[in-house]
């Protein structure tokens, strides 16, 4: 080509045209001969001679002697090209006897991030279609992602039939099948989890319901919560969040847990212990004990050399950490730096010796790792099964192999989710001037997008299970039989469906199975199904606590905790007895149960256990129960995330509640049972009414309530008026109810009580539920027809573009630039309303441009509005100043109002922030308006 450009323009054009014509003819022949391979040409790039490619340079301002740049190959390279699934399969390196085959690929799916199966074995695929479409993560928050559902209708092992179950999602965080034709999911930078249901059987969700709130966070998409998981204990867990949630007949409740320190991956073993997968660490994060007991710091959890990956040579060397993390000369990763997806294999169609082994993906190293957990004296150490051979369970020489999830499948094998993508680090780590950006541009990795494959792992002589599950339409009695199936996925699915169906007719069969079945795994699932149905009896637990199997004794301890929390203190004696159990693992479990239930004389009973059992695990757990390390406190939500002043308010309210309210509403807020399936009073834990506008609870406490509630009657009959109590007394108890009973809502002040007291002074009788609801301020939602505008709108994240659908929701908004006087945020209501309250949250943000560094705390900026006014208008032209000066604050901002009918509401900054080098925008999350 150099010669051509040195010749005359006419001759050059002639020869170039001839060359292009021949190439076109060859391309046509190729498409006709090999149509399947031809579709990959859309992702291939022009193959110019290497000497015509631009030479890569060390970015300006970078010291060429920097360790991360020493030895870097900056020579021009041909672009990395995607392979067909058949060709990629040939690049895998697996242990003898194992095989891999594609079961679902692009173009049917794009950029898969996770999979999950419903009771009929249909596979839901989380398609993250906006992830890293270029090196700047442009348009990452566009509503282009989806959740699709796939079936293998002809039972040939390939998922050929699919539908788009939910479309136009903003980087969804997870997909959890939840009963028949239903899933749970949420979007990035959002706070609410929604339940989506297909009500007409067409494979597309047509019903959307709020499931729970205050579940999310904003920021980098790699740092937000993910992988909602249904645990064997019937609680829902996720990465990042230090709490768990659970649906009850009266609402979704939550409890604090330890910090799981995970990013992308949650799974469980046959005993229901959850295993969380880290992200940037490249390692499993928390796995020693069930997370709801808090954190225990265990030294030497990983065998020596565990952090060294043994991937195949891929040459690209696109490691975010630079040359320091590259093994020469093959360009592979020399220390784990990222991980995604995990699975304890519990199937029945792979070799028996990998059952109970832990698998996870390291997409930077292009490997899937197999881990052998070794338990010694109650403590677990993880070993890389293939470390001595300096290899891994799965390796690939294809640089585009990106294993991001894996799962035990309904057919008893294991599935691997391969995003098959060029870039696997988010835009915050691929900025211009970085080593990684240089490698991305050198190999044009940013051009490989929109692909994705899901693989099945099989083994010689073990055929996949072709008996496809049909649990969604099966009777409850048949579901009970699945609890003894050798495939752990089928046991889990059957248990979940039984609990969600709430069919108590199977309780006798479950009791028999839990007490007498020969299969210990069936007994464990039967026990937890009883617990999930609310049908577990203390007498059954006490029998199981004496069972010959230590695994059953451990499960009985865990399951009994819900009975103790509900008020059955007779179990205390059983717990003390279990602390002297001859089995070390049982003793450790009894110690953790005593801790989480806060048994009387806790320190002495723990010391007694440690005196009788000298195992290392008993010693470690006992010491950390009595003297917890500062970093192992339970996670925060509700009261634990409040200021010191508000924590004192909630603590005073707890005293009032336990002295007075718990008699009817229950110790744990779930309602005191009154026999025949009735409660003395409604449950308060998990109540959306209690957690929404506080006026509901305040009116009821001040004036009382009688009659049915939501069509249900309660044996207590009435809620007596407490209006003779002081404003502070009422504020304290309502604050506790809204924060201390698995709820998460704002604290109430005595001033708010006084306002409601004055507002309702004419109320002379007890309220009736239906009539009261009409008087309570209602949250005005975006779908109610709001029109929201602002003087300035920008993305709140580095490298992202905010979309029209996400810019003006109640989940997040920012000016994008430093606060200046006159900036405004405006809401237009569909009809004129009385606005009673405005709320928004303004948490701190990490400074733009900050790069992650180990053991460093990121710098934060406070992005709340410093001072603003609130105005209303009936026409959007003439404005009335309702509150002339409002001081903003970090975190929750609550503005009580009592406006006349208004069509417009506007917040306007009164002051500017002097520019001091930092960009301090005005940003808000969870903006809510209440009105009537």
TrEMBL record:
Keyword Metal-binding: yes
Domain F5/8 type C: 774-881
UniProtKB keywords: Heme, Iron, Metal-binding
SUPFAM superfamilies for this protein: ARM repeat (SSF48371), Cytochrome c (SSF46626), Galactose-binding domain-like (SSF49785), Soluble quinoprotein glucose dehydrogenase (SSF50952)
Domain Cytochrome c: 648-741
Pfam family, one: DUF7133
Superkingdom of origin organism: Bacteria
InterPro entries xref list: 6-blade_b-propeller_TolB-like, ARM-like, ARM-type_fold, Cyt_c-like_dom, Cyt_c-like_dom_sf, DUF7133, FA58C, Galactose-bd-like_sf
Keyword Signal among UniProt keywords: no
Entry protein name: C-type cytochrome
